[in-house]
Structure formats: structure tokens, C-alpha cells
Amino acid sequence: MVSLLGQGGMSQVYLVEDQKLKGKLWAVKEVLPSEQDGASFLEEAEMLARLHHPQLPQLVDYFTNEDGTGFLVMDYIQGPTLQDLFEEKGRELHTTKVVHIAFQLCEILHYLHTFQPRPIIYRDLKPSNIMLNEQSQVRLIDFGVARHFTQGKQTDTMQMGTIGFAAPEQFMGLQTDARSDLYSLGAMLYYLFTGGQYAYLTHKSLDQLHPELPETLTSTIRLLLQEHPQHRCQSAMEVKMRLRSIYPDPAHTTNYQKHSNPLLPQDKLIIVGGLFAGVGSTFLAVTLARIFNALQFPNALVEQPTIEPDLYMLLYGDLRAPKNYKFAAHSMREQDQSLISSTPWDKGYSTWFPIHPDGFHEEWQPADSFKLLHTIKKPIVLWDISTQWEHPSVQELCHSADEIIVVLDPSPGKCNRPSSRANFERFHSYQQRGKKVHYVANGNMQNHFRNEWVTSLPASPLCTLPELPRGEVMRAVWKGEYLQDRPEVLEQLMTSLSPLLKEILPESRLDVNAGKKTENSLFSKLKKISNR
């Protein structure tokens, strides 16, 4: 043994030197025997043995001696803990540094919370369990109170955690889940931003104690610290997406961001769906993609893998898709590492991600959506979900989205269906958590009937898609053309959708003539761009 690294109530961690490999150091955790610890020691050991993540401890071996004392042999992680660094810096860390630590923790928690066959709940997130190397890379240590999540179980076997950081349900005999770890993340961020104060003792919001912090940051931490889990952020990726809206994540910085054009939107996830089938959500998604193309915004359009395939046919994929095109959902399921380097299906500034025309027939998990999302290096990602608002992966995406766009039409009775009312309630819950939900009408009505229809809705449509001649639309589809690229159609669409565009894009880029001489009309500018 070289030294004692740390100790707790029932365990100690020692730094030891390998007797065969001279100079090789290991961290050995000694877990003292007790009436309960035999089973929990084996659970911790088996859990660690299955984890393969560069920022989690790697288990080398484990064993017990005759008196029941357990030993975990792990790789030795050099560096201070976050608590050590916090104290060394006089309990004051730069905001950007704390947020970049939070980015990494979100990635680690996402890995644990989506672990198969059962998610892992860490349950003891705090500064002293986080280590940092010289590159400020986070390593999460001490899985002594972590546990597998069991669906349907009402309580935890043991109520454990650290006062000041643990979620309320950990001390109330209730079931813990991923949202319990997110509470701890919020409590830890509150602690770091307030010089070491605990949220449960101060009873003050972070913006009161630290008013110069960005509102998005303080509101995210406020959500994380909600007493009831259903009122918190619902996933680690939702937290990360919120923070990325104000602080770029260096691990996922795109080439567009590296050149830091302040006029480009940064990391925008836009969900587009219909309130009911056949209302035109895919048409709107393609329309937005082509408007962004005309405005020279790099964008991607993803078709939700669990819906009926439509996009491939609309894009005339048999003729237009690149040779040997790889469908993203199938490639990911097959763990095809060539997906990222494969030829993208580009059209100007737009990149298409349709599903296979035969459909996707395997199970699609929320983690799959985020894995795909992270391979797409475009500042705007449009995600067409059709009507699958209730699918778990779609709900996770909505929790993380910057904008949610709902397409509906004034068909009598459809907006009052039970499924529509349930979706309106779902949209309202997203709005309560700070998400922006926009309603877009497809098709116009006479004033009297329109007013009657609008008053029956929870919110007025922001704008209305113009009624394009159906014959023209069908001819364009059969020819494999983008009707939205015709200058006269594009101008009409941009004008009709301008209220929506002002909500989701930097205002300075909505005018394609910005910074240029104005002798040419908007029509002529769009004609040049769309003919690219």
C-alpha cells in the first residue's frame, strides 16, 4: 500500500503498487462486511465490470476474503476532485468551466441512464465524487450507492445519498430514477455557483443570489431542483441541450461553429409534427429545410425511424439518393461505423436523413435518437415525427428541443378528438417547462368559421401555410422536384411563414438582402439562391 486515498462509513480506498508490474498503481476499494453489504458489494462489482466508458472507473478485478471484506481493484485516476479544486479556487469557479463540467456529466449520466438491459441510477453525484485531469476531463468515481432501475418498483431497497445533493425521494423511501440524478446535478451546480451554499437551506432561487448568470442557466437549475420528479428536466440530454443554447459544447462543436458566424443559428433542434394524420407535417418540414437552404443555413432533416416512410419517396430517392446510400437508422442498429464517413444525401445546404422505404421494424430507443443527433454536424436539425407524439423517443426529443412545431388544420371535430386533446395537454406540459410550442395551420378558412375554430384551440396558430395548387404539387413529386425551390413558390411560403421564421431564426438573417444593395427584389435574390 502506498497511501490512503479516501474513506467513508463502510469503505476505504487505497493507492497500491502492483507487485508484478513495478511502478503500476491501482486504486483498491475495501468494503467492510455488514449484514447488507455482501449483496451490495457484488452488485457494485458486477455493475462496474459491465461499464465501458472512458470517463468511468475501469474495474480490473474484485474478490472477498474469509471475513467477508470485499475488494475492488480499479484503475488509478490521478488528479484533484472537483471539491478540491473548488476549495483551492476560494469556492469560486468560472461559469464557463462549471458549465463544461456539466456537459460532461450529462454525457456520463446519459450513458448510465440508457444502459442496457437496465438503466443505472448513480444516486450520489457531488463534487467529491468527480475527479478532473489536467485537461479538465471529468471522471465519475465511487459507485457504492448506485443501483439498477427496476420498472414498476415503488421503493428503493435502501435510502442512501448525501444530504444537500440527494433528491428528496432518496430520503422518503420512494423509487429513484434518472430524474433523481438530475436533481443532484442541479443541487451541485447551485452549490458551485453560490460559493458552497445548499439550495435546501437557503430557500432562494439562483437568480436571486447570482443575478448576472444567464436566465437559461438559472431556469434550468430551478427546473432540476423541483421537488416532484415530473416537474424537473426529464433527461440528461434535455439539460445538455438547454445549456448548449447559451454555451457551445467543445466536444460537439461543428465546423460552422468553429468559424463562429454570429448570424448562423447555433445547435437548434426543431421538432415538426402533425396533430393528426395527413395534415402536412412532412411538407412543412421539407419547406423549412428549403427555406433554410435559400437563406444559406446548413440544415438536416431527419425522418423519425418509427413512422411510416414517406420522405424517401417524396425526394424521389431511387433517382436522387447517392449511390449505395446508407440509411442512418439501419446503420446505427448494425453498429455501422462507416455511417459518419458515408456519402451524405445533400441538396445545397440541406442534408436528408430519410428512413428506408420498407420502414424500420426494430425497436428504437431514446438513446438511439440522441446517438443519431450527435452524428449530425449541422447547426439546424429538423426532426419530422409525423403524429408519434406519444413515442418515448419523441418525448425525449421534445424535452430537449429548442422549438416544437405542431401542424393542424380546421377540419371539423379533429382538434377535439381524445388523441388531440391528450396531445394539447402534452404540449402544455412542454410549455410549462419553458419549451416553445408553435402552431401552424394548413389551409385557410372564411373569417367567421376561422374565428370559431381558433377560439376552440388552446392557442392561435402562429401562421398559415398557403394553399398551393394540388396539381402542381403532385407533378413536382412525380418529377422528383422540390416544389419549394421554385422562386415564386418559395417567396409565397416565406411570406406566409414569416411569423414562424422570426421566432426560430436570427432576425438579422431573415432578409436575404441584408448588407447588400437593395435594387434587386427579394424574388430575384431567391431565384438566384434556389437555382443553386
Automatic annotation (TrEMBL):
<keyword id="KW-0067">ATP-binding</keyword>
<keyword id="KW-0547">Nucleotide-binding</keyword>
<feature type="binding site">
    <location>
        <position position="29"/>
    </location>
    <ligand>
        <name>ATP</name>
    </ligand>
</feature>
<protein>
    <recommendedName>
        <fullName>non-specific serine/threonine protein kinase</fullName>
        <ecNumber>2.7.11.1</ecNumber>
    </recommendedName>
</protein>
<dbReference type="Pfam" id="PF00069">
    <property type="entry name" value="Pkinase"/>
</dbReference>
<dbReference type="InterPro" id="IPR011009">
    <property type="entry name" value="Kinase-like_dom_sf"/>
</dbReference>
<dbReference type="GO" id="GO:0004674">
    <property type="term" value="F:protein serine/threonine kinase activity"/>
</dbReference>
<keyword id="KW-0723">Serine/threonine-protein kinase</keyword>
<dbReference type="InterPro" id="IPR017441">
    <property type="entry name" value="Protein_kinase_ATP_BS"/>
</dbReference>
<keyword id="KW-0808">Transferase</keyword>
<feature type="domain" description="Protein kinase">
    <location>
        <begin position="1"/>
        <end position="247"/>
    </location>
</feature>
<dbReference type="InterPro" id="IPR008271">
    <property type="entry name" value="Ser/Thr_kinase_AS"/>
</dbReference>
<dbReference type="InterPro" id="IPR000719">
    <property type="entry name" value="Prot_kinase_dom"/>
</dbReference>
<keyword id="KW-0418">Kinase</keyword>
